[in-house]
């Protein structure tokens, strides 16, 4: 039984994340989507609970996917959830530089392997930060986030002042 942990901030979940989750769910027996947070330094726009709730709704149709929140080191989260490896998505060369360094550190610190999935051409331009920016300026999130979450995320992320 091969279990992988797909960690991220998911603030909010995007169609780019969903592409990686769906493909990982096909390639591995179990996928745990891990919302990583720092309890001492909350950051971003959505709360951890909102991120988890959105991910749970978006992945409800994927039987071998579950969503959980983790704080602390990634190597500890991998151990805590019994995962065999970490999955990450790669969009650009910029992603590669950062991701390679993280993968090597996680391997050195905890013997944790990282599996990379290349972003699909259809969603490699999507990032959670762009989605947040568009929503705060009252833009439409159609084609950027899971359809069932479009309206809710447009409201949650809209600038109120
Ligand atoms: P973002 O980089 O969008 O803020 P996260 O920090 O939550 O999102 O990223 C979690 C993981 O998802 C990372 O491995 C990141 O490279 C990957 N990822 C994010 N957006 C995409 C996308 N559009 N296509 C493929 N992978 C992505």
UniProtKB/TrEMBL annotation:
Amino acids binding ATP: 9-10, 17, 89-91, 99, 123-129
User: Cell membrane as a keyword?
Assistant: no
Which residues make up the annotated site Transition state stabilizer?
17
Location(s) in or outside the cell: Cytoplasm
Highest rank taxon of the organism: Bacteria
- Output the Gene Ontology terms for molecular function: ATP binding; pantetheine-phosphate adenylyltransferase activity
Q: Which cofactor does it need?
A: Mg(2+)
State a single Pfam family of this protein.
Answer: CTP_transf_like
Which GO biological-process labels does this protein carry?
coenzyme A biosynthetic process
Asked whether the keyword Nucleotidyltransferase is assigned, the reply is yes
Can you cite an annotated GO cellular component?
Answer: cytoplasm
Q: Which positions are annotated as binding substrate? A: 9, 41, 74, 88
Q: In which pathway does it act?
A: Cofactor biosynthesis; coenzyme A biosynthesis; CoA from (R)-pantothenate: step 4/5
What reaction does this catalyse? (R)-4'-phosphopantetheine + ATP + H(+) = 3'-dephospho-CoA + diphosphate
Looking at the record, the residues that make up the Cytidyltransferase-like domain are 5-133
List its EC numbers. 2.7.7.3
Keyword tags: ATP-binding, Coenzyme A biosynthesis, Cytoplasm, Magnesium, Nucleotide-binding, Nucleotidyltransferase, Transferase
Oligomer status and interactors: Homohexamer.
Q: Which HAMAP family match?
A: PPAT_bact
Concerning its family, UniProt says: Belongs to the bacterial CoaD family.
General function of this protein: Reversibly transfers an adenylyl group from ATP to 4'-phosphopantetheine, yielding dephospho-CoA (dPCoA) and pyrophosphate.
Q: Give the protein name, as stated in the record.
A: Phosphopantetheine adenylyltransferase
Q: Which organism is it from?
A: Candidatus Avichristensenella intestinipullorum
Q: Which gene encodes it?
A: coaD
């Amino acid at each position: 039984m091969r279990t992988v942990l797909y960690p991220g901030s998911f603030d909010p979940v995007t169609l780019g994340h969903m592409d990686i989750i769906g493909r990982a769910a096909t390639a591995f027996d179990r996928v745990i989507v891990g919302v990583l947070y720092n309890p001492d330094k909350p950051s971003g726009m959505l709360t951890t609970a909102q991120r988890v709730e959105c991910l749970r709704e978006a992945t409800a149709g994927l039987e071998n996917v579950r969503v959980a929140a983790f704080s602390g080191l990634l190597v500890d989260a991998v151990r805590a959830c019994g995962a065999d490896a970490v999955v990450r998505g790669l969009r650009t060369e910029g992603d590669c530089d950062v991701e390679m360094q993280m993968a090597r550190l996680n391997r050195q610190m905890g013997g944790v392997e990282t599996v990379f999935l290349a972003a699909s051409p259809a969603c490699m331009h999507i990032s959670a930060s762009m989605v947040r920016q568009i929503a705060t300026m009252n833009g439409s999130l159609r084609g950027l986030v899971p359809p069932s979450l479009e309206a809710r995320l447009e409201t949650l992320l809209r600038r109120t002042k």
